[in-house]
Amino acid sequence: MPVTEDAKELQGDLIRLRHDLHRHPEIGLHLPRTQEKVLQALDGLPYEITLGRDTTSVTAVLRGGKVPSAGTEKQRPTVLLRADMDGLPVQEKTGVDYTSRADGAMHACGHDLHTSMLAGAATLLAEKQHQLPGDVVLMFQPGEEGFDGASYMISEGVLDAAGTRVQAAYGMHVFSSLEPHGTFCTKPGVMLSASDGLEVTVLGAGGHGSAPHAAKDPVTVAAEMVTALQVMVTRQFNMFDPVVLSVGVLHAGTKRNVIPETARIEATIRTFSEASRVQMMEAVPRLLKGIAAAHGVEVQVDYLEEYPLTITDEDETHTAEKVISELFGERRLSRWATPLSGSEDFSRVLAEVPGTFVGLSAVAPGGDPATSPFNHSPYATFDDGVLADGAALYTGLAVSRLATLSTAS
């Protein structure tokens, strides 16, 4: 029976797990309930399980029972599959009957689907254990949403959990818009932007609103900085190597007739090349310190390096495209022409070993991907119908890549 049909038989279980996780989202690096549910899903399956020391991660290793071909003795074929598990600090407004019961928390990015799909793949792979000429590492990761959970798992040895270094790694991410329902999306090379943070505090001198000349107003300086940052992006950077800078926090003051002591700016910065990323790290502080000096105020600038570029391996991307086409047909495959300006800490894994990242549209069947609320929206919904397909793809990627690795000389 094809793996897609095997996966469909698990659909009911996958939906129940996904809905349970969705009702009880957890945020950050410590997801005890989510970890418990993953362990329950793996219970009774032939996996070697390691729990994170500093996080509630789960690493599960399946030892394939088939002897690899000659020539692979020194490097036993090993493939990694990753799913992130954490939610977001978002108040859900979808109205679905399995809406989050945690106040101020929601699986608004579909990680509940990722976890359920990889749990399904765990079952499917266990059933094929005797056919596998190598090992599979399952990476259930907390803290993707701004906590860099992948770094913790890498430092704790997830890439070497099977005893030999992982030779290929695959991650998957669902989307609540962008593409028609059930479409798989890939791109070789730069697939997702790098993401950095900017925190700025303008230090002025407070005073009465009627006498700004007797104070040092940080508000007008901060306002000029916000505008100047946008102008800088358009005048110092190549439009064909874009930079996205979005100010999400602009805060100052307590009352309209009081000039405050300080003003605060926080922004996210997305770049699509290492050259632009380095240039931004130099240009932003220079600009902001110059504006502050011109106005006679002080400024504190913290440029926070966060997630690097998500760069997929061309050969591994072709492998994923081939598996997708074989399992679901070419009509279900979309190769992106340009990167997406979201960011991912799976980039940490791809910086260490060859691999790729696959998007999967969970837009409701017949829904308009152009108008459906996007990931991170309190109205974002993800269709359960893609769960079996995601589990099948995880499984197919591992089976296919182990087969080619085992025959490589």
TrEMBL record:
Entry keyword annotation includes Transcription regulation: no
Manganese keyword on record: yes
Positions bound to Mn(2+) 2: 109, 111, 145, 376
GO biological process annotation, one example: diaminopimelate biosynthetic process
GO molecular function terms listed in the Swiss-Prot or TrEMBL record: metal ion binding; N-acetyldiaminopimelate deacetylase activity
Pfam families, sorted: M20_dimer (PF07687), Peptidase_M20 (PF01546)
Known cofactor(s): Mn(2+)
Domain Peptidase M20 dimerisation: 197-289
Keywords: Hydrolase, Manganese, Metal-binding
Binding site for Mn(2+) 1: 173
Free-text cofactor note: The Mn(2+) ion enhances activity.
Xref: NCBIfam families: amidohydrolases
Name the record gives this protein: Amidohydrolase
Organism expressing this protein natively: Pseudarthrobacter phenanthrenivorans
